[in-house]
């Protein structure tokens, strides 16, 4: 029994090559569940792409990629003082990632002070506060930051920006560059996120002396949706009549048909969904319709049978789900693999098959 991700390897790699070509000096991002593909697989692909730096989300993810990618490793989540102390007390040994390969992100003056006053010269990227309003040192503190850089090996500055189309990325980045220069801080490299190839070209033309490194995750790994597909194995088919009771809470079957037991449950991320971004009336209407159905005890499953997504018979179990198939649709045979519509960043597959 397995929830499986099938990857058209040739097509997927052709897409990766195309994205890398459109983003010179790209830094692939491999974090979380590895965008569904797994962190180790993404690290191997980054090595194949011959990039020099791979970004991970957290320090805990370093060990999962270090043996599969030979270059530098950038940690995107900003480091904090307590973690700095633990790192300073630790020595590289068996199972530890060579600290000389690791670049930490710093987003607070307090943490930069601890690093600067500590032993050695740790490699850091200083993240500046952006329109995202998430992490970052305010540009008003740049003069103070500049004085602390002697105690670290500064690999540049970072700006985490909103998604493309939300705000003027070029203007925001150029303003940041001007403020770094005005503060008298060194500026050789800038790490940025969510810029388009066109914006990147414009920025490089305006700032030829600055090495601009685009960090790219979703667009690199996931934007060719035809290159991969999730499928769930059909484990059981049970005929039922309207009113029959079933499941943990002995709910009644809504009509004649079949109960399909399929691989994939809450432990895989099945039925998990990020909150909807509502920006127009159509989206609002869809969200309201789905919410009304769920309030009435009906929830559409991600499993497709005979070309149509089917209703959950009851909430997903930990490793399997139960789907209701009406009598008008012949049930597939046990062992059939059913297409599944899943969120790739939310799903952990039992198997990943590169075809």
TrEMBL record:
- What Pfam families does its record include? Ala_racemase_N (PF01168)
Domain (Alanine racemase N-terminal): residue spans on this chain? 8-187
Q: Which domain of life is it from?
A: Bacteria
Q: What is this protein called?
A: Alanine racemase-like protein
Q: Which organism is it from?
A: Thermasporomyces composti
């Amino acid at each position: 029994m397995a929830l499986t991700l099938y990857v058209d390897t040739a097509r997927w790699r052709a897409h990766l090559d195309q994205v890398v070509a459109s983003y010179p000096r790209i830094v692939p991002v491999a974090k979380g569940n590895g965008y569904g593909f797994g962190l180790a697989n993404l690290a191997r692909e980054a090595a194949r792409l011959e990039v020099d730096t791979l970004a991970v989300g957290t320090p805990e993810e370093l060990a999962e990629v270090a043996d599969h990618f030979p270059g530098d490793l950038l940690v995107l989540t900003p480091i904090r003082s307590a973690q700095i102390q633990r790192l300073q007390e630790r020595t590289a040994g068996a199972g530890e990632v060579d600290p000389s390969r690791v670049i930490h992100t710093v987003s607070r003056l307090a943490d930069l002070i601890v690093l600067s006053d500590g032993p050695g010269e740790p490699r850091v990227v200083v993240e500046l506060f952006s329109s995202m309003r998430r992490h970052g040192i305010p540009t008003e503190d740049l003069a103070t930051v500049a004085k602390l850089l002697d105690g670290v090996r500064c690999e540049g500055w970072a700006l985490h920006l909103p998604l493309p189309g939300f705000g003027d990325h070029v203007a925001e980045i150029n303003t940041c560059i001007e403020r770094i220069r005005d503060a008298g801080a060194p500026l050789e490299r800038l790490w940025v996120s969510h810029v388009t190839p066109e914006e990147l070209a414009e920025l490089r033309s305006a700032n030829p002396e600055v090495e601009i490194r685009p960090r790219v995750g979703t667009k690199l790994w996931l934007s060719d949706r035809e290159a991969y597909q999730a499928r769930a194995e059909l484990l059981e088919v049970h005929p039922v009549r309207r009113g029959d009771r079933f499941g943990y809470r002995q709910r009644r079957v809504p009509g004649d048909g079949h109960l399909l037991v399929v691989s994939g449950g809450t432990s895989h991320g099945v039925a998990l969904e990020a909150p909807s971004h509502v920006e127009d009336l159509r989206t609002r209407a869809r969200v309201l319709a789905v919410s009304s159905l769920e309030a009435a005890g009906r929830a559409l499953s991600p499993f497709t049978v005979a070309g149509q997504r089917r209703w959950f018979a009851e909430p997903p179990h930990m490793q399997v789900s139960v789907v209701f198939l009406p009598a008008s649709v012949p049930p597939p045979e046990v062992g059939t693999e059913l297409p599944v519509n899943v969120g790739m960043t939310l799903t952990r597959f039992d198997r990943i098959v590169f075809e």
